[in-house]
Design goal:
This protein is mostly beta strands. Helix content is 15%, strand content 37%. Strands 3-10-9-5-7 form a five-stranded mixed β-sheet. Strands 1-4-8-6 form a four-stranded antiparallel β-sheet. Strands 2-11 form a two-stranded antiparallel sheet. The longest helix is centred in the C-terminal third of the chain and has 17 residues.
Length: 196
């Protein structure tokens, strides 16, 4: 993010995919976890946190999330399973600050076995993308991928906590996943809503 922006990372790093939330869960079970929001900028930022499904056509190399602005894109899996203390938490994060956001992921009992993809995102409006003359506000969306393997025989995913400066310097760059693509998708979705 160069001069600084807002990022989101996993607080507890799993050893195989340290920059993803990775779970093995049986139907009907839950797991509590924490995302860490980092503000590298010199200004306070207003942010909002979401959990979203990946689109059906997503691949490892071409990963996209359902739009929060398109009501036709229902959140059925990861986007519906992850719950925060409040719906889509919104708060102000101070300059150069780190904030933890707790959540619980619950796999419904009737979920078919298989692998499900999604993401936990932080959305914010940088100064350079403030509201234009048309009234459209563009957001930046930064994502941590979520991979959930639903299985009758879940294995324990080994994890380690990473605190403070290690989050800022060791993991922050690799956590900035699909930011530019997400920004474009949000802008297009908002433009369509504005034109209705």
């Amino acid at each position: 993010l160069g001069g600084g922006g807002v990022s989101i990372v996993t607080k507890y790093k799993n050893l195989d995919n340290p920059n993803y939330f990775v779970y093995e869960l049986a139907p009907g079970t839950s797991f509590e976890d924490t995302a860490t929001v980092v503000n590298q900028s010199d200004e306070d930022k207003n942010v909002r946190i979401y959990a979203l499904d990946a689109t059906p056509e997503s691949t490892v190399d071409s990963f996209h999330l359902k739009s929060i602005y398109d009501s036709a894109q229902e959140q059925k899996w990861v986007g519906a399973w992850i719950k925060f203390d409040e719906e889509s938490p919104a708060f102000t994060i101070e300059a150069k600050a780190i904030e933890d956001v707790d959540f619980k992921i619950t796999v419904p009992e009737d979920t078919p076995l298989g692998e499900y993809w999604g993401g936990v995102t932080v959305n914010y409006v940088p100064d350079e993308l403030a509201e234009d003359e048309s009234g459209i506000v563009s957001e930046v969306q930064v994502v941590v991928r979520v991979i959930v393997k639903v299985t009758d025989a879940p294995k324990v995913v080994e994890r380690m906590a990473v605190e403070g400066p290690k989050i800022l310097w060791k993991y922050i760059l690799s956590s900035l996943i699909i930011t530019s693509v997400a920004l474009l998708m949000i802008f297009i979705a908002q433009l369509k809503e504005f034109q209705k």
